[in-house]
Write a structure and sequence with these properties.
With 112 residues, the protein is mainly alpha-helical. It has a domain at 11-72. 53% of the residues lie in helices and 0% in strands. The radius of gyration is 36 Å and the shape is elongated.
Length: 112
């Protein structure tokens, strides 16, 4: 006769913890709607599932990011930048090979 498997206390505890985590993350997603699921779950897990610590951390991050935006310029003023860069036509002197210039000289030494 087949007996249905009964959940052990550790399995029940795990499913309760999973359910609690899912509920907490859903709450956090509703509260911090600008953040992704991955970001919220990472912060939640970094705080070992402590909902209050996670809310505190996400609130601080939200405040910090809002304060940082106040100091950002509206536009980046980097001056006029040409769309295309033309190749350089510099008139730098060309270097000559030293061995070539010495070999073209005639020797003044007497030949025997």
């Amino acid at each position: 006769m087949y007996m249905p498997k009964t959940a052990t206390s550790s399995e029940k505890k795990m499913s309760e913890e999973d359910l609690e985590m899912d509920v907490d993350i859903e709450f956090l997603l509703a509260t911090f709607s600008d953040l992704s699921y991955e970001s919220i779950s990472d912060v939640y897990l970094a705080n070992n599932g402590d909902l209050d610590a996670t809310i505190e951390m996400l609130t601080q991050l939200e405040i910090f990011s809002n304060e940082a935006e106040e100091y950002l310029p509206d536009t980046l003023d980097i001056g006029d930048v040409p769309e295309t860069i033309e190749p350089s036509t510099s008139s730098a002197p060309k270097q000559t090979n030293a061995s070539t210039s010495t070999s073209s000289r005639t020797s003044n030494a007497p030949s025997s």
